[in-house]
Amino acid sequence: YQRRVHGESSLVEAAYYITMGIDLIAGGRKKNTNRKDAETDNVYIRLLVKLYRFLSRRTDSTFNKIVLKRLMMSRVNRPPLSLTRVVRYAKGQDDKLCVVVGTVTDDARLFEMPKLSVVALRFTATARARILKAGGEALTFDQLALRAPTGANTLLLRGPKNTRTAVKHFGAAGVPNSTTRPRILSTGRKFERARGRRNGNGYRN
Asked: Which end of the chain, N or C, is more open, meaning fewer C-beta atoms within 10 Å of its C-beta?
């Protein structure tokens, strides 16, 4: 650009320090999508988040950090766990506290309920009754924080996440060798009986 030096016109080169950009893949930059707080309005869960945020900060316990992360998850990511699975996972570890960040449900197919101490966000009425009848304990997370502030002697469990009906529809239904459940209007003689279902129509799975 031009500037005047002592009345004379002279060209002075300007050095511009330009940092090069980066090529972003489609969808933009990678953002941190981890939750910083619970999205729910449930005051009890929000109080537990405050409690375990304190514990995870003031202790070196990985258990508290995991519980805090799970408390802030959505309901889809906090699947329920049946008593059958609790008993199966706790086999040989009856002296430990079973911890579930979610709901513990009853299972009518379970005939013998052993004595267990279970910590959960919520128990169904029949699950709680069966645990107590067997001489066990159904505890809350604030009781767990008093009994085991660092998560010592606990067994952290999770329910199966992909057993929802919605997950069965994920994928391409109707293509060869696909086990994806199709979204259909109805069941009967006139539905889902053409392409992919008969040898005479396209192909047969």
From this structure: N
